[in-house]
Amino acid sequence: MHRSIYLGLSATFAALVCATGVNAQAPEEFYKGRTIDMIIGYAPGGSNDTYARILSNHMGKHIPGHPGIVIRNMPGAGSFLAVNQVYSASPRDGTVIGLGAPTIALDERLGTNGVRFKTKDLNWIGRTNSIVNIVMTWKTSPVKKIEDAFTRDVNLSGTGAGSTVSIYPNVLNKIVGTKFKLIMGYRGSSEAMLAMERGEAEGHSTSWEAVKTAHPAWITDGSINNILQFGLTRHPEMKDVPTAIELAKTPEQKAILTAVMNATEVGTGFFTTPGVPADRLNTLRRAFDQTMKDPDFLKEAEKMRVDIQPLTGEKLQELVASVSDLSPELTEKLRAAYVQDQ
After folding, report:
1. Rounded to two decimals, what is the model's pTM?
2. pLDDT (tens digit, 9 = 90+) per residue, 1-20?
3. Which fold has domain 133-263?
4. Which helix (H) or strand (E) holds 97?
5. Lowest mean pLDDT among 90-94, 169-173, 328-332
């Protein structure tokens, strides 16, 4: 019996020593020969997937030890499936990077169904770009400007209930009275955009980057009407397209819409798991920063028609945490508009 206890304690001690040894490794020693999984909460083909793939092509060379980076698409539940995976089930050693919806901090605060993560406990690595979403209608639609969406139903192809594709139009319906109707169930914005082109819906809401990346000809040949943009300010390439905030008729409506649109600043924000050793988190953040200045990375981003407006991991961490500063009164009013029908 004493021998069994001794062997058990020895095994436990050995495991602890082994774990301590791994955690004590210098970043270069740790990452050498390893692979980092980049878990993307979206289907292949959209702008988020594009940003992730470009980043994965270049970030590894800026990490000491030069690990490989492998993309793993995990779409579902508006990216919650991937975020929950990274938060709860992935190794907490710096070998996993995630990308989810920019609204996940707001989803957590408001109690959206399916949230099983704490965004402040995720370790944020950096942002490649802010995300401005648009509402577009196909050229055959009678809806040519946002004012038309107040007088008639507008069928939009939609994806997951937790994605900005559905969140932004639904919030606008409840706050200012637009009449967007979501036809849900499409697997990613790429499929939803094709559904609009086939006439299954007359419009779609997605990121401006997704349109520029997947269908640049639609912009130049007049195939689509951009009737609204979801952002804090008008995008330089859409100076004549109003923002959702401009539709607010009262200070309260403006405050609610501004709180939702803050997600555009989170943008394509990459994170890793809670509990990552501090030196590895710093290594990932600095590698991300270096990648944002890498000429080869910038050249590929330009080729893929995506903009780069980076934000450091430290600033992104602060931005995500600021969601908790919403007043209780505003939070309740925002919840009524945001969480219902999710």
Report:
1. 0.77
2. 445 444 454 444 444 444 44
3. D-Maltodextrin-Binding Protein; domain 2 (3.40.190)
4. strand 96-99
5. 328-332
